[in-house]
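Hi F.,

I've been meaning to write this up properly since the lab meeting, where we talked about keeping a consistent format for the predictions we share between groups. The idea is simple: the sequence comes first, exactly as it goes in, then the structure tokens exactly as they come out, then a line or two of notes. No screenshots and no reformatting. I'm using this chain as the first example so we have something concrete to point to.
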Amino acid sequence: MKQVLQYIVFLAIGIGLIWYSVATGIINPTKLWADVSNARLGWVLSMVALMFVAHGSRAARWKMLLEPLGYHPSFVQINNAVWLGYFANNLVPRLGEVTRCSQLYKSDKIPIEKSLGTVVVDRLFDVVALFTLLLLHLIIDFDRLWQFVSIQLAQRSATQNQTPWGLIVAFGILVVLGSLGIVFRQKLLQFSVINAIFQKVKGLIDGLLSIRQLKNPLLFIVYTIMIWGTYWLMGYVLFFAIPKFADLPMMASFTVLVSGALAMILPSPGGAGAVTAIVSPILVSMYGLNKDDAGTLSTFIQSSQMLATLLVGTCIFLISLFIKQK
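Output, unedited:
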């Protein structure tokens, strides 16, 4: 019941963001349909092919994190788990990480808490990569970014800073509880429930520390570059699917990538509504697109990638289900 309510809340957020985009004119449904219905299918299929490369690179990188723990699942099983994770994230945000680990437990009996630790490492590197891309964007396209920031600052009034006493108190309580836990650790471990939790946490930490035992750190970095470089190209090839956007520079796709990744922080299924609401105004300010075209482009990129993930994920799920039954 809790998961159903959570899904309803996330779905409501997505619908609310889409409604907001339509109500404020960010999305013009008539123009959106006119442009998307005439999109060139070949470029969309090129985006799907690049998506296979990106997810395959992520699977190869994840395999490198699992090997120091003594687990050697096949690339096919890991790749399927990655696709199913993205499939789940497009239905229920934040569910994909657990889905990936659950799939590997079913196929190779890898403890979920250990594989989850490696997924945390995987996501931490994504955060580092995104931060690096933000810095590169700032350096390469500083003029456009400064123009966008100046416009946003001019539209907002300064707000007074308030001391976050709630966060300070909560942090203090965590420090006290953590200290007591360390002091009375042996006594607490005598309770079966606490001991079970401790073992799960230990498995998670083992997964996190797998990064220190990588056999080839350089290859790990190469896979990371391939993942994000392919994400960049996935957006860029979709510019050519709708001819009016074909003249946009590659840096516009870089902007869509970075701002879209930040938009995915909002718990909306597949970024529906969130990507359009955040990316569209940026395209207007930085690249001079009119409001309708910016809404069309950002919605087209987000929805194309979401639908491709759902279709391929569904196929992989059905195939894996059939093989398991057989």
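Notes:
The chain has one domain: 2-152+208-325.
The mean pLDDT is 80.

If this format works for you, I'll send the rest the same way.

G.
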